[in-house]
Structure formats: structure tokens, C-alpha cells
Amino acid sequence: MPMHYVRRTVHGQTPPDVMLRAVREVRLDNKSIRGTAERYNINYRTLARYCKKMSPEDIEGDCVQPSLPVGYVKNRIVFTEEQERQLENYILTASDIYLGLTPNEVCKLAYTFAMANNVPMRPNWAEKEMAGLDWFGAFLKRHPTLSIRTPEATSLGRTSTSGISIRLPLVSIPLCSDSSFLKWKNC
């Protein structure tokens, strides 16, 4: 698969609530699969597959969204959107206080963050103790506001902002998603 995947079809884009309504119509109202698929503009084989896969709790219950994922699922996403937002905010905060991070440091930070939050990751992350370059490239594409490159040297007179000295090393990333994302150690 190329690095810049462009979707060429509209297959697999049926919303989950529409699929659930169609399955309920087939299973509960005993309508035909082909007729229901035509009414909801779904492929009849796809509807037949979901009629077999969906649990009776989803069909008979009053839920709006099925517990089963419908359509194509993103693969290789390591962090949730909230975790990626925290990582992005951390990188932006570090650059605001003149502590720019290099690409390797961001990859190591991502590995540390994944370990701290017990996120399942690819085996090569554990071997190298840093995230891969493919993850880094995709992360930058998802967050275009970030500009990660080798930071410029900053004079000591400009380094202390809001009482935090730049020479203090980063200690840990918290396990929970609280607002105190930066933890500093006093040397």
C-alpha cells in the first residue's frame, strides 16, 4: 500500500445506524435481504453478512449504534485521538519554552508515552525503544500544525519562562489524561 493512500471507491461507507436498521428490518420484520438492501442502498451480500454477524442483543435492544464495527476500520493506529492530542500539546508546550524536540526525541517520547499508558504497539518499537519513522510521518500528517526539526540554540537569558528553567530534564509522562501533562524534576 502506498504511503499516500487515496480511496477510489465508496464501498464500506454505510453508517452503522443505517446498517442496524436494515438488519432489524430483515431479522425482526422478516423482510427479504435483497429488497431491504435495495431500499437502504447496501450491497445485498454485505447485508447478509451483517445479519449473521450481529448479536441478538444489538438487534432486539433499543441501542442506536451496533457494538460490531461497520465498514472499514483504520489499521495501525497506535494512540487514541485524545492521547494524540495530549502528545501534540506536549510537543507544542515544549517548543513554546524553547525546548524543541528532534524527530528522534519525538519517536522516543511516543514510545515512552505508549509504555506509560499500556498501549499495544508494534514489536519493532520495543526493540528500538522508539516509534518508527512511518508512525512519525503519519503523526505529522495528522497534526500539520507541528513543525518538528532540529531546534535552534537559545541563549540562557531567553530560556526561563514562567518560572520553569529549560535545563530541568523531563522525568515522566503521567498514566492518566490529566491537565498536568508536563512533569519536571528539580535538579
Automatic annotation (TrEMBL):
This is HTH CENPB-type domain-containing protein. It comes from Paramormyrops kingsleyae.
